[in-house]
Every structure is written in structure tokens, then in C-alpha cells.
């Protein structure tokens, strides 16, 4: 389903990034990095928007030939970016939304873990296996 | 309701434990103990700041965040809402970016006799909460300084000064 999942800290450095075809890892890092500008743009637009448009899910950030990039931002300004294969047309907006919600829930669990130091890279195995489950579903 | 009591007991024990070795540690030791409590509060605040607003809409401005503290955070921790929130818009005597949060019957103080007898002991019981507020604010992207003041016992005021970078 997802080919790359990334968690980006408030200060725009990666807390967690994983992609499924490991040989092209750098390409996905680059894609996620590029998407951060779009995320920032959407966040600043959100500040001016009307009350009912303030959602955490940012929707499609930008499509490329082979992939679609989706974004989500938490109230603490932590960003989640997900890259999805665009050949997978069966994937609805709602499913992406629920995947992000799952990711957010897992992230809060990581934050509430007393052994995790906020701001460090995420090394939790539970989080890792949750991301794996999101990636495997289609592949 | 039972978990509220558990938190109060735990908090009382945390305070007692820190002062157990040396009941009168002098000003340096006192500061040290207070900052330990503040640090613990900060970490809890970070976690709560991430967890509680999970289903909420995005915050637009500082005031939204402060309202969240008074309503949701206070209810989650103390099962009551903050009694008043004053901003620098209403009270011109305060410098820009200052908020005063007042609780007229602060649950961690209410167990002590009301009045002035135990006024000196109050700072120990407020350090954790100051850290809690500061931690939550920092997670939500607001850098701040939080101080607490007590005039008469169950009432206490938290002064939040936003640090503009």
C-alpha cells in the first residue's frame, strides 16, 4: 500500500523514515524532503482558513508520475508523510485518512513511552511493525 | 473518580520522597528538588500535549492553546476546569504575551488546611504542575515560562509568559 512512510519533527528533521524497495531509498528521502515545502504552505494556509477547514489531514500534497504523496500534521506540528504507488487506484481518500490516524495513534504511544526521549529517532519495535503492516497490505 | 485520588497520592509521595532525605536542604537543595519535580511534570506534559488533542481540530493561535490547557488538560489531570483565564488584553498591567490562569480550589493544595499556616510548603506542590503546563505548551509549539503564586491556600495562580523567539 504505502511504499514510504516518514515522521518529521517540528523542526523539520526526520524522526523516522522507511521505504519498501530499499535500493531506491535515497529517492524517497528526496521526495519526502521536497514535500515539506508543500506541507508548510498548507499549514500557513490553514491558519487563515475558516473554522471548519482546520483538519489535521492535509490530503494529497503532490502527485508524480509513479507515486502520490500524502501529508498529515498533528497539533504539535509533527508531520507524517506517506508515499503511495499511483498505480494503486483502488486506494480511497478515506483509507489514507484512516492509515494516517493509525500512524498518529502509534506515534502518541511512542511519545507516552517513558523510555523514549522526545526528539530522538523512533526505534520502537511496535511502531516499526505497525508501519510494516501498512506497507505489506498490498505488496 | 478513584484515579484522581491515586494521582494525588502519587504526587504527595513524589514530593515527600524528594524531601525525605533532608527535610531542610537549604536554598540550593530546595531549588534542585523543585527542578526535579518540574522536569517530571515537563515530560508528562509533553506526552499529554501529544495525546489529548489527537482528535481535535488544529489550533489556530496561542489563545486556542491556552483554552485547551484550561479546559481539556485541567479536566484530564484534575477533573475540573480552570476557574479563570486572563489575558493581557483584559488586564493592561501585564506585559505582552502573558496569561494568568487561576484556580480557586487547586486540588493538590486543597488537602492542606486553608489559610496561611502551610503557605511556605506550597511551592513544593506547584512545581510539578508548572512543569506540566510548560511541557504541554512546548509540545504544542509555544515556548513559555510558567510561574505559580499563592496568596491564600486553595487558590493559586499560574502565570504563563510566552517567549517570543
From TrEMBL, chain A:
User: What superkingdom heads the lineage?
Assistant: Eukaryota
Pfam families in alphabetical order: Sedlin_N (PF04628)
Keyword vocabulary terms for this entry: Endoplasmic reticulum, ER-Golgi transport, Golgi apparatus, Transport
| Family matches, as InterPro entries | Longin-like_dom_sf (IPR011012), Sedlin (IPR006722), TRAPPC (IPR007233), TRAPPC2L (IPR044760)
- Which SUPFAM superfamilies has this protein been placed in? SNARE-like
Chief place of localization? cytoplasm
SMART domains tied to this protein: Sybindin
Would the keyword Kinase be found if you checked this record's keyword annotation? no
| Cellular compartment(s) | Cytoplasm, Perinuclear region; Endoplasmic reticulum; Golgi apparatus, cis-Golgi network; Golgi apparatus
Subunit composition?
Part of the multisubunit transport protein particle (TRAPP) complex.
Q: Which family does it belong to?
A: Belongs to the TRAPP small subunits family. Sedlin subfamily.
What is the official name of this protein in its record?
A: Trafficking protein particle complex subunit
Automatic annotation (TrEMBL), chain B:
Q: What is the lineage of its organism?
A: Eukaryota, Metazoa, Chordata, Craniata, Vertebrata
Broad class of where this protein is predominantly found: Golgi
Q: Where in the cell is it found?
A: Golgi apparatus, cis-Golgi network
Which Gene3D superfamilies is this protein grouped with?
A: Trafficking protein particle complex subunit 3
Q: What superkingdom heads the lineage?
A: Eukaryota
List, alphabetically, the Pfam families matched. Answer: TRAPP
Q: Which InterPro entries match?
A: NO_sig/Golgi_transp_ligand-bd, TRAPP_component, TRAPPC6/Trs33
CDD domains hit by this protein: TRAPPC6A_Trs33
Q: What is this protein called?
A: Trafficking protein particle complex subunit 6A isoform X1
Q: Which residues cross the membrane?
A: none
Amino acid at each position: 500500500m504505502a511504499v514510504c512512510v516518514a515522521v518529521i519533527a517540528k523542526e523539520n528533521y526526520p524522526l523516522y523514515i522507511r521505504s519498501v524497495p530499499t535500493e531506491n531509498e535515497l529517492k524517497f528521502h528526496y521526495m519526502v524532503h521536497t514535500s515539506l515545502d508543500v506541507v508548510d504552505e498548507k499549514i500557513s494556509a490553514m491558519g487563515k482558513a475558516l473554522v471548519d477547514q482546520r483538519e489535521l489531514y492535509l490530503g494529497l500534497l503532490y502527485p508524480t508520475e509513479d507515486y502520490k504523496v500524502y501529508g498529515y500534521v498533528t497539533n504539535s506540528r509533527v508531520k507524517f508523510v506517506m508515499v503511495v504507488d499511483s498505480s494503486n487506484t483502488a486506494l480511497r481518500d478515506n483509507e489514507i485518512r484512516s492509515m494516517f490516524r493509525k500512524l498518529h495513534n502509534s506515534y502518541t504511544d511512542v511519545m507516552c513511552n517513558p523510555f523514549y526521549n522526545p526528539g530522538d529517532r523512533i526505534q520502537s519495535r511496535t511502531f516499526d511493525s505497525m508501519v510494516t503492516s501498512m506497507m505489506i497490505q498490498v505488496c | 473518580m478513584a484515579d484522581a485520588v491515586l494521582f494525588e497520592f502519587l504526587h504527595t509521595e513524589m514530593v515527600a520522597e524528594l524531601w525525605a532525605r533532608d527535610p531542610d536542604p537549604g536554598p540550593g537543595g530546595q531549588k534542585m528538588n523543585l527542578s526535579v519535580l518540574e522536569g517530571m511534570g515537563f515530560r508528562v506534559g509533553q506526552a499529554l500535549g501529544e495525546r489529548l488533542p489527537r482528535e481535535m481540530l488544529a489550533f489556530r493561535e496561542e489563545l486556542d492553546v491556552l483554552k485547551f490547557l484550561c479546559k481539556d488538560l485541567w479536566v484530564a489531570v484534575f477533573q475540573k476546569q480552570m476557574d479563570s483565564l486572563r489575558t493581557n488584553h483584559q488586564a493592561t498591567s501585564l506585559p505582552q504575551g502573558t496569561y494568568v490562569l487561576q484556580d480557586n480550589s487547586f486540588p493538590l493544595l486543597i488537602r492542606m488546611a486553608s489559610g496561611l499556616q502551610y503557605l511556605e510548603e506550597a511551592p513544593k506542590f506547584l512545581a510539578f504542575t508548572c512543569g506540566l503546563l510548560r511541557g504541554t505548551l512546548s509540545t504544542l509549539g509555544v515556548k513559555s515560562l510558567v510561574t505559580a503564586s499563592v496568596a491564600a491556600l486553595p487558590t493559586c495562580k499560574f502565570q504563563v509568559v510566552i517567549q517570543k523567539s
